[in-house]
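User: Structure please.
Assistant: Input sequence and predicted structure:
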Amino acid sequence: MSENDVITVENFKEKFVSLYVLKPREIALSSLEEGLTLNRKLNLPFLLPLVPSRVVNAMFFSNPNFKAEDVISVLNPNYTDFKDDKEVDEESAASIRTIQQDCFERRLPKVIKQLSIETSNSLFLSKFLSFCTGSSYLPCKENNPGYSINVSFEKSLDEKNLLPTANTCDNNLNLPLYGYHYNGESALEEKLSKAVELGCETFGFE
């Protein structure tokens, strides 16, 4: 090691910052530019405006390799006490809360995992995200720390035959309150899979 390589108090700013902070970033940005433009053979500023914004978002700001656990981790429960319902007393409200927690914490994660590993549902996770949010990918956590899919519960007279619904405007998945509680996880798996498939057929999926 020569004297020129030694970092001292006097040359710290010049050598350390340049060598260990600026240089690695310069190399990274140069490599990124080279990869995106095929070593400057493509005019990226000209091409990007021609690409749909959702494709650009997926390419640069998403996690393309996500698993069932990643999708489950962004689910956020939105429990309802149904206080406006005159038939719901204090005892019923406690039971309703337990049913919602059981579905959100145990049944729904289990069903999502099961559907994601079935051969016939190889794209289930992407379709599920598209059904709930309108986008078939997960955004990077670093750029979207508050990203979540809200899971709500609805009380209806004919819950046994109801399919889950979604509102992509606010990333909301709606589940019938009692529909799958008394009919087991197989009912939730069947209805969720059907709802996702119908949703993708109706609105399109790529």
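Residues 3-50 form one domain.
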